[in-house]
Specification:
The chain is mainly α. 71% of the residues lie in helices and 1% in strands.
């Protein structure tokens, strides 16, 4: 049995010395490797595929090709190469990600369990959680709970596993037990993550405890609430029964595993490897907006602005996070040196979401960066008119407007804004 040791892309990028090529073959591989170093996943996928036509059983090239297609979000092509690795008995964590995701999407849960039992999964944490969700997909909540508890018993994984157990229980309508897990049931409550608080609030609403849900939201986020949290809070305030929608089935649950692990490994493993988890979560749950935004932000950080703009566009217009996605898309376009396209995105957003200060501030910043100072002032004016109250974090809006006034030669207005900025943030 052959097993690839590399579980991160850094290992792939340093593998040149281990591969022997003819002069004819080396060009495609070296071009692919350079493209991968530059995070040009489309070119890397193309060149690795070309290299595989001449060396069909090279494990390093195969794994790198799988990673490139996964990074592009093309899971089907990644799966085709991963299957070939399986047939050659080559073990690869990256290939396993693609194959497990495909089998989960096909609801072939028996095969998933066989793979995980044969050490052809993601590793201890991912395999344990996926096993639990797959048991739920097979209709056995008791087996699912048992497997979540096994993960929870491992050192350092208790909070992680209980979060998923609560989601699983809520997905089958056991809101009482799910709420007990979130609240701690006499022990310490679960760590409050953004998605965890959303799930907890939805669960409490299903239990007709909207007031408690509102209290948890306010304690967690204060006045710093994004549009999605604000929309949830408004529904709870109207005493609506908010459905539990975070996780609908086992496939969504496995997507949440990939997303959760991606969040956990980002600081240690870096953007390029984390992107594989975010893309897989997207594939399994196409309406998982947080994984869509995560993929887009990672691509932007990696300098793949054209891919980032396409991913940002996948957030539905009716979703509360649409405005954040459009602001992100505009920033990606700006960084891709397409300022006119970025301005067009923000102007359309100002028309459709005029009530959001961030939209106007983002437009003002973009106008200012492009030396269109009067338009910047107008955008900052619009933002300041709709802020609910003066807060210290608004100092930068006054500061940015002051710069715009100064460039326009309107000195009195510039000085007034500079002074207001200092009043709001005197220690700056």
């Amino acid at each position: 049995m052959k097993k690839l040791k590399a579980t991160a892309l850094a290992a792939l990028l340093s593998a040149t010395a281990t591969i022997a090529f003819s002069d004819e073959d080396s060009g495609a591989y070296l071009a692919a490797r350079q493209a991968q170093i530059e995070h040009d996943f489309a070119a890397a996928a193309q060149y690795y595929s070309q290299a595989l036509t001449r060396d069909r059983a090279n494990p390093v090239i195969m794994e790198a090709a799988v990673a490139s297609f996964l990074s592009l979000g093309d899971v089907d092509k990644a799966v085709s190469i991963a299957r070939a690795m399986d047939e050659l008995d080559l073990r690869s964590q990256i290939a396993n990600m693609a194959l497990v995701a495909k089998k989960v999407a096909d609801e072939d849960y028996g095969t998933v369990l066989d793979r995980l039992g044969d050490d052809r999964g993601l590793g201890a944490l991912g395999d344990g959680l996926i096993t639990a969700w797959v048991e739920l997909g097979r209709g056995d909540m008791s087996a699912a709970a048992e497997n979540f508890d096994k993960v929870a018993a491992q050192r350092g994984l208790n909070n992680f596993a209980l979060y998923h157990k609560a989601l699983a229980l809520a997905s089958v309508g056991d809101f009482e037990t799910a709420e007990e897990i979130f609240s701690g049931g006499g022990n310490a409550p679960l760590q409050r993550t953004r998605r965890g608080v959303v799930a907890w609030a939805q669960i409490l609403s299903q239990l007709e405890r909207n007031e408690e849900a509102l209290k948890i939201i306010d304690e967690t986020f204060g006045s710093n609430q994004d549009p999605e949290i604000t929309a949830l809070r408004e529904k709870l305030s109207r005493d609506e029964a908010v459905p539990f929608s975070l996780i609908k089935n086992a496939q969504d649950g496995v997507a949440e595993v990939f997303y959760s692990i991606g969040q956990a490994i980002l600081s240690e493993s870096g953007e390029q490897f984390t992107l594989l988890y975010a893309r897989t979560a997207e594939y399994l749950s196409p309406d998982h907006v947080d994984s869509i935004l995560m993929s887009a932000e990672l691509l932007e950080t990696l300098g793949r602005y054209e891919l980032a703009t396409e991913v940002y566009k996948r957030v539905p217009r009716e979703h509360p996070a649409f405005s954040a996605a459009e602001v992100g898309r505009a920033e990606a376009l700006r960084r891709a040196e397409k300022p006119d396209a970025a301005i067009e995105v923000l102007e359309q957003l100002r028309s459709s979401h005029p009530e959001l200060p961030l939209v106007h501030v983002s437009a003002g910043d973009l106008y200012r960066q492009n030396e269109r100072y009067q338009e910047a002032v107008d955008a900052y004016d619009a933002a300041l008119k709709i802020f609910a109250e003066r807060q210290s974090d608004q100092w930068f809006v006054h500061y940015a407007r002051a710069i715009s006034y100064e460039r326009l030669g309107i000195w009195d207005s510039a000085e007034a804004d500079f002074r207001k900025a200092l009043e709001l943030n005197p220690d700056h």
